[in-house]
Amino acid sequence: MACFLAPTAVAIVTTSIKKKIPPKYHIEWLNTMLWGGVIMLAVEHIAHKEVVPFPPFLTAMENPADIPVMLQEIATIGTAMTLAILVAWIAMVAIANAVEKSRGKNVQIAAM
Q1: In angstroms, rounded to a whole number, what is the distance separating the alpha carbons of residues 84 and 90?
Q2: Structure letter (DSSP) for residue 21
Q3: At 4, is the secondary structure helix, strand, or coil?
Q4: How far is CA 70 from CA 10, 35, 55, 76, 93, in A?
Q5: ω into residue 7 within 30 of 0, thus cis?
Q6: Quick check: 1 pLDDT over 90?
Q7: Res. 108: pLDDT tops 70
Q8: What confidence tens digit (pLDDT) does each residue in 17-31 have?
Q9: In angstroms, rounded to a whole number, what is the distance separating the alpha carbons of residues 73 and 77?
Q10: pLDDT at position 62
Q11: For every residue of 53-92, which 3-state class applies, written as one string?
Q12: Which residues pair with 58 in a beta bridge?
């Protein structure tokens, strides 16, 4: 229904603060992963007619009884997807920084 709204919120925040994040954290990787996932999920939800181009935009909001179900989905599925993306990004940054650090040591050894 609307699970893509959780990573959308995080993507908006990270995109707005990207200039304040040091380059070693590769925030552009996180933004690419978040926005890519949001676009993919939005297309999938549009294809299944869960998101429509007219108000209320989210078909789950047409029936007030479906709103709690939608909010539950955002809280569980959306948060889980966002956390999975964050964990993958943290792993990527850790590996990239470890490789960069080891290359720096190899360059220092070769210079001796």
Answers
A1: 10
A2: S
A3: coil
A4: 18, 21, 16, 10, 33
A5: no
A6: no
A7: no
A8: 999 999 999 999 999
A9: 5
A10: 85
A11: CCCCCEHHHCCHHHHHHHHHHHHHHHHHHHHHHHHHHHHH
A12: 51
